Amino acid sequence: MKQSRWRKHHKWLGLVLAFFLLMFCLSGMVLNHRTLASGVNISRQWLPDLYRYHRWNNGLLRGTLPYAAPASREDIPGHTRLLLYGSGGIWLTDSTGASFTDFNRGLPPGADYRQMRSLVQLPCGALFAATPLGLYRRPPYGHAWERVSLPLAPGERLTDLTRHGDTLVVAGRSRLYLCLPPYRTFRPLELRAPADYDGKVSLFRTVWLLHSGELFGTAGKLLVDGVALTLILLTLTGLLYWWMPRRIRRAKRAGRPAKRQVRWLKASLGWHTRVGVYTLVLTLFVSLTGWMLRPPVLLALVYGRVPPVPGSVLSSSNAWNDRLRMIRYDEACGDWLLSSADGFYHLPALTGVPVKIAKAPPVSVMGVNVFTGEGQGTWLVGSFSGLFRWDRRAQRATDYFTGQAAPEKSGAPFGLRAVAGYSADFAGPPCVVEYYQGTDALPMPERFAALPMSLWSLSLEIHTGRIYTFLGSGTLFYICVVGLLVLWLLWSGYKIRRHP
Q1: What are the residues facing 93 on neighbouring strands?
Q2: Would you tell me how many other CB atoms lie within 10 Å of the CB of residue 78?
Q3: Based on the structure, what is the number of domains in the chain?
Q4: How distant is the alpha carbon of residue 137 from its chain centre?
Q5: Band of the pLDDT at 71, cuts 50, 70, 90?
Q6: Is 385 within the bounds of a domain?
Q7: Is position 167 within any domain?
Q8: Strand ranges (E), 97-225
Q9: Which of 150, 166, 268, 361 could form a disulfide with 397 if both were Cys (CB 3.0 to 4.6 A apart)?
Q10: pLDDT band per the 50, 70, 90 thresholds, residue 4
Q11: Given this model, what pLDDT does residue 448 score?
Protein backbone atom coordinates (compact mmCIF):
# COMPACT_ATOMS: atom_id res chain seq x y z
CA MET A 1 0.00 0.00 0.00
CA LYS A 2 1.26 3.49 -0.80
CA GLN A 3 2.57 5.64 2.04
CA SER A 4 -0.02 8.33 1.42
CA ARG A 5 -2.78 5.77 1.87
CA TRP A 6 -1.30 4.52 5.16
CA ARG A 7 -1.29 8.13 6.36
CA LYS A 8 -4.93 8.65 5.41
CA HIS A 9 -5.95 5.44 7.19
CA HIS A 10 -4.06 6.43 10.32
CA LYS A 11 -5.41 9.97 10.34
CA TRP A 12 -9.07 9.27 9.79
CA LEU A 13 -9.22 6.12 11.90
CA GLY A 14 -7.54 8.06 14.69
CA LEU A 15 -10.10 10.85 14.51
CA VAL A 16 -13.06 8.45 14.41
CA LEU A 17 -11.76 6.19 17.19
CA ALA A 18 -10.35 8.87 19.52
CA PHE A 19 -13.41 9.05 21.77
CA PHE A 20 -13.83 5.28 21.94
CA LEU A 21 -10.15 4.76 22.70
CA LEU A 22 -10.31 7.21 25.59
CA MET A 23 -13.40 5.44 26.93
CA PHE A 24 -11.68 2.06 26.64
CA CYS A 25 -8.66 3.26 28.57
CA LEU A 26 -10.43 5.18 31.35
CA SER A 27 -13.02 2.47 31.97
CA GLY A 28 -10.36 -0.24 31.86
CA MET A 29 -8.34 1.42 34.61
CA VAL A 30 -11.45 1.61 36.80
CA LEU A 31 -12.20 -2.09 36.14
CA ASN A 32 -8.66 -2.98 37.18
CA HIS A 33 -9.14 -1.39 40.63
CA ARG A 34 -12.63 -2.32 41.73
CA THR A 35 -12.11 -1.78 45.46
CA LEU A 36 -10.87 1.78 44.93
CA ALA A 37 -13.93 2.66 42.82
CA SER A 38 -16.56 0.77 44.84
CA GLY A 39 -17.63 3.77 46.92
CA VAL A 40 -18.45 5.92 43.87
CA ASN A 41 -22.06 5.94 42.66
CA ILE A 42 -23.49 7.21 39.37
CA SER A 43 -27.09 8.38 39.06
CA ARG A 44 -29.09 6.34 36.55
CA GLN A 45 -30.91 9.53 35.59
CA TRP A 46 -27.89 10.47 33.48
CA LEU A 47 -27.75 7.10 31.70
CA PRO A 48 -29.73 5.70 28.75
CA ASP A 49 -33.22 4.49 29.65
CA LEU A 50 -32.03 0.89 29.28
CA TYR A 51 -30.05 1.30 32.51
CA ARG A 52 -32.99 2.42 34.62
CA TYR A 53 -34.82 -0.24 36.54
CA HIS A 54 -38.11 -1.32 35.01
CA ARG A 55 -40.20 -4.21 36.33
CA TRP A 56 -37.31 -5.50 38.50
CA ASN A 57 -34.94 -5.96 35.56
CA ASN A 58 -31.13 -5.62 35.51
CA GLY A 59 -30.82 -7.99 38.48
CA LEU A 60 -32.81 -5.82 40.91
CA LEU A 61 -34.74 -8.89 42.09
CA ARG A 62 -32.44 -11.88 42.47
CA GLY A 63 -34.36 -13.68 45.20
CA THR A 64 -36.36 -13.45 48.41
CA LEU A 65 -36.04 -14.85 51.93
CA PRO A 66 -38.92 -15.42 54.36
CA TYR A 67 -37.96 -13.31 57.36
CA ALA A 68 -38.73 -14.44 60.88
CA ALA A 69 -38.64 -11.20 62.89
CA PRO A 70 -40.37 -9.63 65.88
CA ALA A 71 -43.97 -8.73 65.13
CA SER A 72 -44.67 -5.24 63.85
CA ARG A 73 -47.80 -3.12 63.79
CA GLU A 74 -47.42 -2.90 60.02
CA ASP A 75 -47.67 -6.67 59.54
CA ILE A 76 -50.69 -7.93 57.64
CA PRO A 77 -52.25 -10.99 59.31
CA GLY A 78 -51.79 -14.13 57.24
CA HIS A 79 -48.92 -12.71 55.17
CA THR A 80 -45.24 -13.63 55.48
CA ARG A 81 -42.59 -10.97 55.89
CA LEU A 82 -39.96 -11.18 53.15
CA LEU A 83 -36.54 -9.78 52.39
CA LEU A 84 -36.10 -9.03 48.70
CA TYR A 85 -32.50 -8.75 47.50
CA GLY A 86 -30.55 -8.12 44.31
CA SER A 87 -28.42 -5.47 42.62
CA GLY A 88 -30.10 -2.64 44.56
CA GLY A 89 -29.51 -4.06 48.04
CA ILE A 90 -32.09 -5.48 50.47
CA TRP A 91 -35.71 -4.41 50.97
CA LEU A 92 -38.27 -5.50 53.56
CA THR A 93 -41.74 -6.37 52.27
CA ASP A 94 -44.33 -9.12 52.68
CA SER A 95 -46.04 -11.68 50.48
CA THR A 96 -48.42 -9.03 49.14
CA GLY A 97 -45.56 -6.90 47.80
CA ALA A 98 -47.61 -3.82 48.62
CA SER A 99 -44.79 -1.78 50.19
CA PHE A 100 -41.01 -1.88 50.46
CA THR A 101 -38.84 -0.60 53.31
CA ASP A 102 -35.10 0.05 53.02
CA PHE A 103 -33.19 -2.71 54.84
CA ASN A 104 -29.65 -1.59 53.98
CA ARG A 105 -28.73 0.32 57.13
CA GLY A 106 -25.12 -0.37 58.06
CA LEU A 107 -24.03 -1.38 54.56
CA PRO A 108 -21.46 0.86 52.82
CA PRO A 109 -23.14 3.51 50.63
CA GLY A 110 -21.46 2.39 47.42
CA ALA A 111 -23.82 0.53 45.06
CA ASP A 112 -21.09 -2.03 44.40
CA TYR A 113 -21.29 -3.09 48.05
CA ARG A 114 -25.02 -3.82 47.67
CA GLN A 115 -24.80 -6.37 44.88
CA MET A 116 -26.45 -9.09 46.95
CA ARG A 117 -25.70 -12.70 46.02
CA SER A 118 -27.55 -14.48 48.82
CA LEU A 119 -29.26 -14.06 52.19
CA VAL A 120 -29.52 -16.56 55.04
CA GLN A 121 -31.30 -16.43 58.39
CA LEU A 122 -30.07 -18.70 61.16
CA PRO A 123 -32.29 -20.36 63.80
CA CYS A 124 -31.04 -17.83 66.33
CA GLY A 125 -32.54 -15.02 64.20
CA ALA A 126 -29.27 -13.58 62.92
CA LEU A 127 -29.09 -12.63 59.24
CA PHE A 128 -26.08 -13.00 56.95
CA ALA A 129 -25.73 -11.35 53.54
CA ALA A 130 -23.07 -12.08 50.91
CA THR A 131 -21.87 -9.65 48.26
CA PRO A 132 -18.84 -10.10 45.97
CA LEU A 133 -16.95 -7.59 48.12
CA GLY A 134 -17.77 -8.92 51.58
CA LEU A 135 -19.96 -10.68 54.13
CA TYR A 136 -22.33 -8.85 56.49
CA ARG A 137 -24.19 -9.87 59.64
CA ARG A 138 -27.31 -8.40 61.24
CA PRO A 139 -27.73 -9.62 64.84
CA PRO A 140 -31.09 -10.77 66.21
CA TYR A 141 -33.07 -7.69 67.18
CA GLY A 142 -30.31 -5.60 65.59
CA HIS A 143 -30.98 -2.53 63.50
CA ALA A 144 -27.93 -2.42 61.21
CA TRP A 145 -25.60 -4.67 59.25
CA GLU A 146 -22.05 -5.29 60.48
CA ARG A 147 -19.04 -6.27 58.36
CA VAL A 148 -17.78 -9.81 59.05
CA SER A 149 -14.08 -10.56 58.85
CA LEU A 150 -13.17 -13.52 56.63
CA PRO A 151 -9.72 -15.10 56.05
CA LEU A 152 -9.96 -14.39 52.31
CA ALA A 153 -7.11 -14.90 49.91
CA PRO A 154 -5.92 -11.66 48.22
CA GLY A 155 -8.41 -10.55 45.58
CA GLU A 156 -10.93 -13.33 46.24
CA ARG A 157 -14.59 -12.46 45.67
CA LEU A 158 -17.59 -14.10 47.34
CA THR A 159 -20.13 -15.90 45.18
CA ASP A 160 -22.72 -17.54 47.45
CA LEU A 161 -24.03 -18.18 50.94
CA THR A 162 -26.09 -21.08 52.34
CA ARG A 163 -26.63 -23.16 55.47
CA HIS A 164 -27.26 -26.77 56.39
CA GLY A 165 -28.38 -27.47 59.92
CA ASP A 166 -26.30 -25.24 62.16
CA THR A 167 -23.46 -24.93 59.61
CA LEU A 168 -23.12 -21.67 57.69
CA VAL A 169 -21.24 -22.00 54.40
CA VAL A 170 -19.82 -19.04 52.48
CA ALA A 171 -18.52 -19.69 48.98
CA GLY A 172 -15.66 -17.75 47.48
CA ARG A 173 -14.43 -18.24 43.94
CA SER A 174 -11.69 -20.60 45.13
CA ARG A 175 -12.63 -22.02 48.56
CA LEU A 176 -15.39 -22.36 51.11
CA TYR A 177 -15.61 -20.75 54.54
CA LEU A 178 -17.42 -22.65 57.30
CA CYS A 179 -18.87 -21.28 60.51
CA LEU A 180 -20.59 -22.95 63.49
CA PRO A 181 -22.41 -21.44 66.51
CA PRO A 182 -21.90 -18.83 67.87
CA TYR A 183 -20.98 -17.77 64.30
CA ARG A 184 -17.99 -15.62 65.07
CA THR A 185 -15.08 -17.42 63.39
CA PHE A 186 -14.91 -18.76 59.85
CA ARG A 187 -12.67 -21.65 58.86
CA PRO A 188 -11.42 -21.80 55.24
CA LEU A 189 -11.88 -25.12 53.47
CA GLU A 190 -10.15 -26.08 50.25
CA LEU A 191 -12.14 -28.75 48.46
CA ARG A 192 -10.42 -31.88 47.23
CA ALA A 193 -9.64 -32.29 43.56
CA PRO A 194 -12.31 -34.14 41.54
CA ALA A 195 -11.47 -37.27 39.60
CA ASP A 196 -11.73 -35.44 36.27
CA TYR A 197 -9.28 -32.69 37.27
CA ASP A 198 -6.54 -32.39 34.63
CA GLY A 199 -4.74 -29.32 35.94
CA LYS A 200 -5.87 -27.20 32.99
CA VAL A 201 -7.66 -23.86 33.22
CA SER A 202 -10.17 -21.97 31.11
CA LEU A 203 -8.71 -20.44 27.95
CA PHE A 204 -11.28 -17.65 28.15
CA ARG A 205 -10.26 -16.84 31.74
CA THR A 206 -6.58 -16.90 30.76
CA VAL A 207 -7.09 -14.38 27.96
CA TRP A 208 -9.31 -12.26 30.24
CA LEU A 209 -6.60 -12.06 32.91
CA LEU A 210 -3.94 -11.40 30.28
CA HIS A 211 -5.96 -8.47 28.98
CA SER A 212 -6.35 -6.91 32.44
CA GLY A 213 -2.85 -7.86 33.59
CA GLU A 214 -4.31 -9.58 36.64
CA LEU A 215 -2.75 -12.86 35.48
CA PHE A 216 0.46 -11.60 37.10
CA GLY A 217 -1.06 -9.89 40.12
CA THR A 218 -0.76 -6.22 41.00
CA ALA A 219 2.39 -5.75 38.91
CA GLY A 220 0.56 -7.01 35.83
CA LYS A 221 -2.42 -4.74 36.41
CA LEU A 222 -0.15 -1.72 36.84
CA LEU A 223 1.62 -2.60 33.58
CA VAL A 224 -1.72 -2.69 31.72
CA ASP A 225 -2.69 0.59 33.42
CA GLY A 226 0.52 1.98 31.95
CA VAL A 227 -0.54 0.76 28.50
CA ALA A 228 -3.89 2.52 28.98
CA LEU A 229 -2.12 5.75 29.88
CA THR A 230 0.09 5.29 26.83
CA LEU A 231 -2.94 4.96 24.55
CA ILE A 232 -4.45 8.07 26.13
CA LEU A 233 -1.21 9.96 25.45
CA LEU A 234 -1.14 8.71 21.84
CA THR A 235 -4.76 9.76 21.34
CA LEU A 236 -4.28 13.25 22.79
CA THR A 237 -1.02 13.94 20.95
CA GLY A 238 -2.58 12.67 17.72
CA LEU A 239 -5.52 15.02 18.14
CA LEU A 240 -3.17 17.87 18.95
CA TYR A 241 -1.09 17.18 15.84
CA TRP A 242 -4.26 17.21 13.71
CA TRP A 243 -5.68 20.38 15.29
CA MET A 244 -2.57 22.55 15.68
CA PRO A 245 -1.95 23.30 11.93
CA ARG A 246 -5.38 24.92 11.85
CA ARG A 247 -4.34 27.20 14.71
CA ILE A 248 -1.11 28.03 12.88
CA ARG A 249 -2.89 28.90 9.64
CA ARG A 250 -5.42 31.02 11.54
CA ALA A 251 -2.63 32.91 13.31
CA LYS A 252 -0.79 33.57 10.06
CA ARG A 253 -3.91 34.86 8.36
CA ALA A 254 -4.42 37.24 11.29
CA GLY A 255 -0.80 38.35 11.14
CA ARG A 256 0.04 36.96 14.58
CA PRO A 257 3.23 35.01 15.43
CA ALA A 258 2.72 31.25 15.64
CA LYS A 259 6.00 30.14 17.24
CA ARG A 260 4.29 28.61 20.25
CA GLN A 261 1.85 26.67 18.07
CA VAL A 262 4.74 25.39 15.95
CA ARG A 263 6.54 24.18 19.09
CA TRP A 264 3.38 22.38 20.21
CA LEU A 265 3.04 20.81 16.76
CA LYS A 266 6.61 19.50 16.76
CA ALA A 267 6.37 18.30 20.37
CA SER A 268 3.12 16.45 19.78
CA LEU A 269 4.52 14.70 16.70
CA GLY A 270 7.72 13.79 18.57
CA TRP A 271 5.89 12.31 21.54
CA HIS A 272 3.33 10.56 19.35
CA THR A 273 6.01 8.93 17.20
CA ARG A 274 8.47 7.89 19.90
CA VAL A 275 5.89 6.60 22.36
CA GLY A 276 3.96 4.81 19.63
CA VAL A 277 7.04 2.97 18.35
CA TYR A 278 8.46 1.96 21.73
CA THR A 279 5.15 0.63 23.05
CA LEU A 280 3.77 -0.91 19.86
CA VAL A 281 4.09 -4.52 21.02
CA LEU A 282 2.28 -3.82 24.30
CA THR A 283 -0.51 -1.75 22.77
CA LEU A 284 -1.08 -4.37 20.07
CA PHE A 285 -1.14 -7.15 22.68
CA VAL A 286 -3.66 -5.43 24.96
CA SER A 287 -5.87 -4.48 22.00
CA LEU A 288 -5.75 -8.00 20.55
CA THR A 289 -6.61 -9.76 23.82
CA GLY A 290 -9.48 -7.35 24.42
CA TRP A 291 -10.81 -7.98 20.92
CA MET A 292 -10.79 -11.74 21.60
CA LEU A 293 -13.06 -11.46 24.66
CA ARG A 294 -16.24 -10.65 22.75
CA PRO A 295 -18.21 -12.42 19.99
CA PRO A 296 -17.45 -14.01 17.68
CA VAL A 297 -13.97 -14.96 18.99
CA LEU A 298 -15.39 -15.36 22.52
CA LEU A 299 -17.38 -18.40 21.41
CA ALA A 300 -14.16 -20.15 20.39
CA LEU A 301 -12.53 -19.44 23.77
CA VAL A 302 -15.32 -20.40 26.16
CA TYR A 303 -14.85 -24.16 26.01
CA GLY A 304 -11.09 -24.18 25.50
CA ARG A 305 -8.76 -25.42 28.24
CA VAL A 306 -5.01 -24.85 28.49
CA PRO A 307 -2.27 -25.45 31.09
CA PRO A 308 -1.95 -22.49 33.49
CA VAL A 309 0.78 -19.96 32.77
CA PRO A 310 3.65 -20.72 35.22
CA GLY A 311 3.95 -18.16 38.00
CA SER A 312 0.55 -16.64 37.27
CA VAL A 313 -2.48 -16.37 39.56
CA LEU A 314 -4.01 -19.33 37.70
CA SER A 315 -1.06 -21.54 38.60
CA SER A 316 -2.27 -22.94 41.91
CA SER A 317 -2.23 -26.20 43.88
CA ASN A 318 -5.92 -25.60 44.57
CA ALA A 319 -7.91 -27.57 41.99
CA TRP A 320 -10.87 -25.21 42.50
CA ASN A 321 -8.93 -21.99 42.04
CA ASP A 322 -11.39 -19.43 40.59
CA ARG A 323 -13.90 -22.19 39.72
CA LEU A 324 -16.50 -22.18 42.53
CA ARG A 325 -19.84 -20.45 41.98
CA MET A 326 -22.74 -21.72 44.16
CA ILE A 327 -23.38 -24.49 46.69
CA ARG A 328 -26.53 -26.08 48.14
CA TYR A 329 -27.41 -29.10 50.26
CA ASP A 330 -29.91 -31.56 48.77
CA GLU A 331 -31.96 -32.95 51.66
CA ALA A 332 -33.68 -35.58 49.51
CA CYS A 333 -30.45 -37.00 48.06
CA GLY A 334 -28.35 -36.38 51.18
CA ASP A 335 -25.44 -34.68 49.46
CA TRP A 336 -23.98 -31.28 48.56
CA LEU A 337 -24.52 -29.79 45.12
CA LEU A 338 -21.74 -27.64 43.75
CA SER A 339 -22.04 -25.30 40.75
CA SER A 340 -18.68 -24.49 39.22
CA ALA A 341 -17.24 -22.91 36.10
CA ASP A 342 -16.92 -26.45 34.72
CA GLY A 343 -20.40 -27.76 35.51
CA PHE A 344 -22.14 -29.39 38.47
CA TYR A 345 -20.59 -31.71 41.04
CA HIS A 346 -21.94 -33.56 44.07
CA LEU A 347 -20.23 -34.77 47.23
CA PRO A 348 -21.62 -36.55 50.32
CA ALA A 349 -19.62 -34.33 52.68
CA LEU A 350 -17.61 -31.17 52.21
CA THR A 351 -14.47 -33.13 53.01
CA GLY A 352 -15.25 -35.73 50.33
CA VAL A 353 -14.19 -35.95 46.71
CA PRO A 354 -16.49 -34.00 44.33
CA VAL A 355 -17.92 -36.11 41.51
CA LYS A 356 -18.92 -34.58 38.16
CA ILE A 357 -22.64 -34.86 37.32
CA ALA A 358 -22.96 -35.96 33.71
CA LYS A 359 -26.58 -34.98 33.06
CA ALA A 360 -27.21 -31.47 34.37
CA PRO A 361 -29.02 -28.37 33.11
CA PRO A 362 -27.19 -26.04 30.71
CA VAL A 363 -25.74 -22.93 32.33
CA SER A 364 -24.55 -19.74 30.65
CA VAL A 365 -20.87 -18.89 30.83
CA MET A 366 -22.05 -15.91 32.89
CA GLY A 367 -22.91 -18.30 35.75
CA VAL A 368 -25.94 -19.45 37.75
CA ASN A 369 -28.39 -16.83 39.06
CA VAL A 370 -31.13 -19.13 40.39
CA PHE A 371 -30.39 -22.30 42.37
CA THR A 372 -33.35 -23.26 44.53
CA GLY A 373 -34.78 -26.59 45.64
CA GLU A 374 -38.37 -27.66 45.10
CA GLY A 375 -38.08 -30.78 47.25
CA GLN A 376 -37.85 -34.49 46.40
CA GLY A 377 -34.52 -33.99 44.67
CA THR A 378 -35.86 -31.42 42.19
CA TRP A 379 -34.08 -28.11 41.63
CA LEU A 380 -34.65 -24.96 39.63
CA VAL A 381 -31.48 -23.81 37.86
CA GLY A 382 -31.58 -20.42 36.16
CA SER A 383 -28.98 -18.46 34.21
CA PHE A 384 -28.80 -16.34 31.08
CA SER A 385 -29.32 -19.62 29.20
CA GLY A 386 -32.84 -19.97 30.64
CA LEU A 387 -34.60 -21.64 33.58
CA PHE A 388 -34.69 -25.41 33.95
CA ARG A 389 -36.33 -27.89 36.31
CA TRP A 390 -33.77 -30.51 37.24
CA ASP A 391 -34.96 -33.87 38.60
CA ARG A 392 -31.81 -35.40 39.99
CA ARG A 393 -33.36 -38.77 40.77
CA ALA A 394 -34.66 -39.21 37.23
CA GLN A 395 -31.49 -37.57 35.83
CA ARG A 396 -33.62 -35.33 33.67
CA ALA A 397 -33.73 -31.56 33.06
CA THR A 398 -36.63 -29.81 31.34
CA ASP A 399 -37.30 -26.27 30.24
CA TYR A 400 -39.31 -24.50 32.96
CA PHE A 401 -41.44 -22.62 30.43
CA THR A 402 -42.05 -25.25 27.73
CA GLY A 403 -41.57 -28.55 29.56
CA GLN A 404 -39.37 -29.79 26.73
CA ALA A 405 -36.09 -31.59 27.37
CA ALA A 406 -33.23 -29.22 28.13
CA PRO A 407 -30.44 -28.93 25.53
CA GLU A 408 -27.20 -30.64 26.44
CA LYS A 409 -25.12 -27.49 25.83
CA SER A 410 -25.76 -23.95 27.02
CA GLY A 411 -25.04 -22.36 23.62
CA ALA A 412 -24.54 -18.57 23.42
CA PRO A 413 -23.89 -16.56 26.62
CA PHE A 414 -27.42 -15.09 26.33
CA GLY A 415 -30.30 -17.42 25.51
CA LEU A 416 -33.92 -16.64 24.62
CA ARG A 417 -34.79 -16.19 28.32
CA ALA A 418 -31.95 -14.55 30.28
CA VAL A 419 -33.10 -15.44 33.80
CA ALA A 420 -31.70 -13.21 36.55
CA GLY A 421 -33.96 -13.98 39.54
CA TYR A 422 -36.77 -16.07 40.98
CA SER A 423 -39.15 -16.07 43.93
CA ALA A 424 -42.01 -18.33 44.96
CA ASP A 425 -42.70 -16.42 48.18
CA PHE A 426 -45.21 -13.87 46.90
CA ALA A 427 -48.94 -14.46 46.63
CA GLY A 428 -49.82 -15.88 43.24
CA PRO A 429 -47.69 -17.88 40.80
CA PRO A 430 -43.87 -17.99 41.12
CA CYS A 431 -42.09 -14.87 39.95
CA VAL A 432 -39.45 -15.47 37.24
CA VAL A 433 -37.35 -12.37 36.53
CA GLU A 434 -35.53 -11.88 33.24
CA TYR A 435 -32.50 -9.64 33.05
CA TYR A 436 -33.81 -7.28 30.36
CA GLN A 437 -37.59 -7.71 30.51
CA GLY A 438 -37.93 -8.12 34.27
CA THR A 439 -41.31 -9.44 35.42
CA ASP A 440 -44.94 -8.32 35.52
CA ALA A 441 -45.77 -10.62 38.43
CA LEU A 442 -44.81 -8.00 41.03
CA PRO A 443 -45.30 -4.21 40.82
CA MET A 444 -42.03 -2.29 41.26
CA PRO A 445 -42.07 1.02 43.17
CA GLU A 446 -41.30 3.96 40.87
CA ARG A 447 -38.60 5.26 43.23
CA PHE A 448 -36.49 2.17 42.48
CA ALA A 449 -36.04 3.19 38.83
CA ALA A 450 -33.22 5.61 39.62
CA LEU A 451 -31.36 3.63 42.29
CA PRO A 452 -27.66 4.43 41.81
CA MET A 453 -25.23 2.43 39.71
CA SER A 454 -21.66 1.85 40.79
CA LEU A 455 -18.82 3.46 38.84
CA TRP A 456 -17.32 0.00 38.39
CA SER A 457 -20.51 -1.38 36.82
CA LEU A 458 -20.81 1.65 34.55
CA SER A 459 -17.18 1.21 33.49
CA LEU A 460 -17.93 -2.39 32.57
CA GLU A 461 -20.82 -1.25 30.36
CA ILE A 462 -18.57 1.35 28.69
CA HIS A 463 -15.68 -1.07 28.22
CA THR A 464 -17.87 -3.71 26.55
CA GLY A 465 -19.72 -1.16 24.44
CA ARG A 466 -23.14 -1.96 25.86
CA ILE A 467 -23.49 1.69 26.93
CA TYR A 468 -23.86 2.70 23.25
CA THR A 469 -27.50 1.68 23.14
CA PHE A 470 -28.08 3.56 19.87
CA LEU A 471 -26.27 0.67 18.16
CA GLY A 472 -29.11 -1.71 19.09
CA SER A 473 -28.14 -5.36 18.60
CA GLY A 474 -24.92 -4.09 17.03
CA THR A 475 -23.44 -3.75 20.54
CA LEU A 476 -22.80 -7.51 20.38
CA PHE A 477 -20.24 -6.90 17.61
CA TYR A 478 -19.03 -3.49 18.72
CA ILE A 479 -15.80 -4.88 20.21
CA CYS A 480 -15.20 -7.06 17.16
CA VAL A 481 -15.45 -4.14 14.74
CA VAL A 482 -13.81 -1.42 16.84
CA GLY A 483 -11.11 -3.82 18.03
CA LEU A 484 -10.09 -4.61 14.45
CA LEU A 485 -10.05 -0.90 13.60
CA VAL A 486 -7.83 -0.14 16.60
CA LEU A 487 -5.41 -2.89 15.55
CA TRP A 488 -5.32 -1.42 12.03
CA LEU A 489 -4.80 2.06 13.47
CA LEU A 490 -1.77 0.91 15.46
CA TRP A 491 -0.35 -1.02 12.52
CA SER A 492 -0.79 1.87 10.10
CA GLY A 493 1.11 4.10 12.53
CA TYR A 494 3.96 1.59 12.54
CA LYS A 495 3.99 1.48 8.72
CA ILE A 496 4.20 5.28 8.56
CA ARG A 497 7.13 5.32 10.96
CA ARG A 498 8.91 2.48 9.15
CA HIS A 499 8.72 4.29 5.80
CA PRO A 500 8.45 8.01 6.64
Answers
A1: 82
A2: 9
A3: 1
A4: 24
A5: low
A6: no
A7: no
A8: 101-102, 118-121, 127-131, 134-138, 146-148, 158-164, 167-172, 176-179, 187-189, 201-202
A9: 361
A10: confident
A11: 96
